[in-house]
Backbone:
């Protein structure tokens, strides 16, 4: 659905994106996560042909992103947090205006979304709250059932209820669509992404299915008989190891029950208890970020 | 065609008040022109001429900026617009809001003063073509290079200031160097129109702001150079050649001077 090869974007002295290789499988909800300034929006803008890459290339719906035409845009929905909408338009005129652009516009679906979002049709876009503007933009981007939906931090700054409502409608209305979402909101990603790519300082740190990601990350807590300190060398897959009295904690990034237990037994003496806990995506993200910080320091 | 009309109707809905303002200024100017007894225009008419030109330039910018061609945040950029349809919609709007009324105003003044508009149709159309090439096209090109209307106005005022300096500010230059001649004016017009067409097409087809701005900068520099420093000898030779071409009839038996 989307494929990027060695995608790089340089602004004067800043590398916004470095050698990004990515494949978004059809039907997936692919979340591009990372801190602010990681290059998520840059990647999405290149994919949507809003900016051009310095080198490398991106392919969207089988077409080079720099060659995207009306035919492809008719099958793509794009909503961004800082998109400039035609704010002079009333909501009803805005939706009617969009309807004419899309042969596949589904009037019944648009009506359902208007009802669900309680869009005030008689008001101008400029008078709407940010949440309502996002709802109007989403309605104008979902009503033609696009094959690909690209969302650039669309829900940032919205309250939890509105966010949940929008995510729910997004998944319900477009069950066959592929979704590419850029977000630094980890709870948002966790709630509906099937794949995740983690960008940091323009580089892709990892790409993985959410299921396998949460499978392989575990927080391990080893309780020893007496405090012995941390072993001099630890496996590279153990992150953020720290001790507190007789208790040692770390994040295992390639957890497998038997193998991990054996590894712990080999590294520590006088083990009283070993506990492994599943980690939320937020906890995984924080563990990775902390590990990077320590490496940099 | 459907999407051309769709975009055109949207622009009309948005910009009809501005178009009406330009028509009011044009109507006042046309009325003054119709009743003028002297060949010299009054100061008020001068101001009205300037006002209507500025109003047309602003209207042109506003219609282009409805679908801003610079930046990466505009809603329309990720919607299924085809650039030839978009550009055609803009040109139709400008033809109907600016060139049509201007043409009708000229027809009215000619008729009211007892001349036949039909007999002068060629000149009337030529005037509109010149107007389109020298005012409308450069305004479209400039609007396609800026991010918003404020930037457009700043650049227009900078250009007007530049022209003012070139016309009056270079008083130290010998008079003959500043004397307007047809050949110099024609060269500037052709350069302006050609570069404006290039910029407009690149921007609508590819949205390459850097390339288009480079073309515009080169064209502006060349225009200044042509206006200020075209050697008088070259102008003289050019004028003579042009006169020969003009005075020859199509079958070649014209007067050759």
Residues:
């Amino acid at each position: 659905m989307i494929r990027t090869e060695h995608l790089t974007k340089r602004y004067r002295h800043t590398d916004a994106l470095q050698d990004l290789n990515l494949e978004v499988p059809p039907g997936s909800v692919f979340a591009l996560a990372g801190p602010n300034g990681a290059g998520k929006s840059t990647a999405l803008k290149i994919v949507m042909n809003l900016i051009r890459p310095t080198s490398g290339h991106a392919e969207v719906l089988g077409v080079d992103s720099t060659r995207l035409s009306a035919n492809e845009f008719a099958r793509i929905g794009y909503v961004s947090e800082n998109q400039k909408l035609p704010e002079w338009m009333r909501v009803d005129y805005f939706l009617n205006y969009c309807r004419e652009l899309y042969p596949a516009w589904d009037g019944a679906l648009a009506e359902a979304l208007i009802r669900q979002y309680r869009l005030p049709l008689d008001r101008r876009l400029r008078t709407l709250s940010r949440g309502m503007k996002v709802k109007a933009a989403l309605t104008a981007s979902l009503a033609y059932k696009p094959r690909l939906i690209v969302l650039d931090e669309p829900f940032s700054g919205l309250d939890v209820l509105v966010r949940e409502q929008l995510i729910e409608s997004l998944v319900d209305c477009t069950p066959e669509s592929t979704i590419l979402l850029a977000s630094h909101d980890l709870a948002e990603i966790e709630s509906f992404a099937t794949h995740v790519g983690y960008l940091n300082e323009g580089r892709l740190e990892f790409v993985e299915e959410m299921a396998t990601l949460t499978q392989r990350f575990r927080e391990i807590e080893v309780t020893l008989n007496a405090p012995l300190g941390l072993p001099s060398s630890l496996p590279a897959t153990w992150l953020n190891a720290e001790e507190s009295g007789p208790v040692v904690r770390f994040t295992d990034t390639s957890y497998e029950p038997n193998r991990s237990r054996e590894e712990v037994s080999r590294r520590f003496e006088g083990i009283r208890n070993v506990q492994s806990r599943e980690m939320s995506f937020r906890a995984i993200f924080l563990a990775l970020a902390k590990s990077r910080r320590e490496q940099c320091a | 065609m459907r999407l051309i009309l769709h975009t055109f109707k949207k622009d009309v809905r948005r910009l009809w008040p501005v178009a009406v303002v330009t028509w009011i200024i044009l109507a006042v100017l046309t009325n003054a022109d119709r009743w003028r007894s002297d060949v010299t225009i009054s100061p008020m008419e001068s101001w009205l001429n300037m006002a209507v030109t500025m109003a047309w330039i602003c209207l042109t910018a506003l219609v282009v900026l409805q679908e801003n061609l610079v930046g990466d945040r505009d809603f329309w950029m990720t919607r299924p617009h085809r650039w030839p349809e978009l550009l055609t919609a803009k040109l139709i709007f400008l033809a109907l809001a600016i060139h049509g009324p201007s043409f009708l105003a000229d027809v009215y003044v000619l008729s009211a003063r007892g001349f036949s508009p039909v007999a002068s149709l060629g000149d009337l159309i030529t005037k509109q073509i010149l107007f389109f090439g020298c005012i409308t096209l450069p305004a479209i090109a400039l609007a396609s290079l800026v991010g918003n209307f404020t930037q457009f106005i700043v650049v227009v005022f900078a250009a007007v200031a530049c022209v003012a300096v070139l016309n009056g500010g270079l008083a130290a230059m010998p008079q003959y160097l500043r004397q307007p001649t047809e050949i110099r004016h024609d060269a500037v017009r052709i350069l302006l129109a050609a570069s404006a067409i290039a910029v407009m097409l690149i921007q609508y087809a590819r949205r390459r702001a850097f390339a288009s701005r480079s073309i515009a900068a080169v064209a502006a520099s060349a225009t200044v150079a042509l206006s200020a420093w075209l050697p008088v000898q070259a102008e003289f030779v050019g004028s003579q050649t042009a006169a020969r071409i003009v005075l020859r009839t199509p079958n070649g038996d014209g007067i050759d001077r």
